[in-house]
Amino acid sequence: MNGWTIQVSLAQPAILVRLHPVPVLALIVGLSFHVASAADWPQWMGPQRDGVWRETGIVERFDTNGPPIIWRVPVKAGYVGPAVVDGKVYFLDREAGPQPERKKGERSIPQVPGNERIVCLSAVDGKVVWERPYDCPYRIAYPSGPRATPVVQGGRIYTLGAMGDLRCLEIADGGLVWSRQLPTEFQTEPPVWGYAIHPLLDGDRLICAVGGTNSAVVAFHRDTGKELWRALTAPEIGYAPPVIRDVAGRRQLVFWHPDALTGLDPATGAVLWTQLYPVGGKPQRPEVAIAMPRFEGDRVLLTSFYQGSMLVQIPKSGEEPKVIWNRRSSKQSEMTDGLHTVMSTPVIRDGHAYGLCAFGELRCLDLRTGDRKWESLDLFGGEGGFFAHAFIIEQGDRYWFWNDHGELAVGTMSTEGLRLTSKAKLLETTESTRGRDVLWCHPAFANRRAYMHNGKEMICVDLAERKV
After folding, report:
1. Whole-angstrom distance, CA of residue 323 vs CA of residue 468
2. H helices present in 317-468, as ranges
3. Exposed end of the chain (fewer CB within 10 Å): N or C?
């Protein structure tokens, strides 16, 4: 991939805004918009964007045939995880046009015609409620489809396509409220593997990683799409979702791009502090900075395939960040310590980090030192694989694992090891890469059910506890 070049030619942007005069009474009523319930999954990593499923009454273990599949419907290609809100399922996919022919030895990425599609399904039976396609030729690697999970709140859905089409739609009928075309408007190019950083909604601000000069991060007004602030210049924006936390005595937007970890004021975009990344080395190009930063108190954990793992002390006002430990090893033969994740966001519990390394090893690290306590290949039947991947979701004292074989597992993790209680094959793999057949679509857990797809079909799985 390092030898590829990207040449992007995009149409001129059109910012579309739909405004209506609103009577005072209607405005007052409108302020009481729908807030996602605890049973919903309205965005990437769930209601609080932390990878925790907070429902109870969930099955302890699967029957012999696995959990019941309530419905199964066809979808188009893509990697987007669904958002589930108020009885509806929202996601994006893509239908590609004719594949262009590539000359032997050609390394540039060709443009592939096709449409991205924003879809609303009934969570009850999977039937299509509405769909809104739009023209979207791709010029990115892994061009199957969009990547970023939608955000659903206040009667609207906010979506980001792989080529940078940022849109706001009414959830009732899919009517377009506003749109922005990020690469064209901010004079930048999509990342090599497409826009994949899930938008973050914070009050009236929709915060997105964009790219370009002083616009690595941009906040848009949720109702109009108007730019509110922009910040940072970075050669690459990467793929790691930003996080807002009350940490080190102040509310911060923490954003990790391939050259630095940065704290910003979410209200203004002002830079609070910066920790250069990687420490003692140069960034890989393109960099695999994908896993969402994870916190324990005022410390934040970063992990990537090429650079390993690093724990940073977030500074208080007037201080500088501090690297507590840095387990860096860029050679594959040396990736036997720390965490070397590709796409999987780790979890932190009781002073330990649990994460999936790039060859399928689930590892436990002591956060005080970065030392490894154990590793296991049980999520993949004892056999790892290059870029092996699984999503990890916490639920009570257990964890749910959705691996790239299309298997759903449940079990416990502690400093003593991994213990799986159930595992079931639910979907077939649909893509081949690095010598493996894989499935990379994010799951959603809502209403005591799981919703996942493989780029060809979406399923709804019943995970409710059985009453005897």
Report:
1. 53
2. none
3. C
Cβ count near 365 (within 10 Å): 28
d(CA 448, CA 54): 10
**Which residue type is seen at 174?**
G
**How far lies 28's CA from each of 20, 86, 193, 221, 294, in Å?**
15, 22, 43, 19, 38
Whether 230 and 217 have beta carbons less than 8 Å apart is answered as yes
AA identity, residue 330: S
Q: Which two three-digit tokens encode residue 333? A: 């033969």
Read off the tokens for 380.
């993949």
Task: Measure the CA–CA gap between 339 and 437, rounded to whole angstroms.
Answer: 23
Cα R_g (the chain), whole angstroms: 21
Query: Measured on CA atoms in the order 130, 134, 137, 138, is the torsion positive or negative?
Result: negative
Structure tokens at 235: 């050669």
C-alpha 341, offset from chain centre:
14
Positive or negative torsion for Cα 191, 193, 194, 195: negative
- Other CB atoms within 10 A of residue 262 CB: 25
The Cα-based distances of 293 to 129, 164, 262, 301 in angstroms read 35, 23, 11, 6
Tens digits of residue pLDDT in 399-427: 999 999 999 999 999 999 999 999 999 99
Residue 170 and residue 176: Cα distance in Å, rounded?
Answer: 7
Distance CA 247, CA 316 (A): 8
Task: Match 């004892």 to its residue by tokens.
Answer: 382
pLDDT tens string 25-75: 333 333 333 445 658 999 999 999 999 999 999 999 999 999 999 999 999
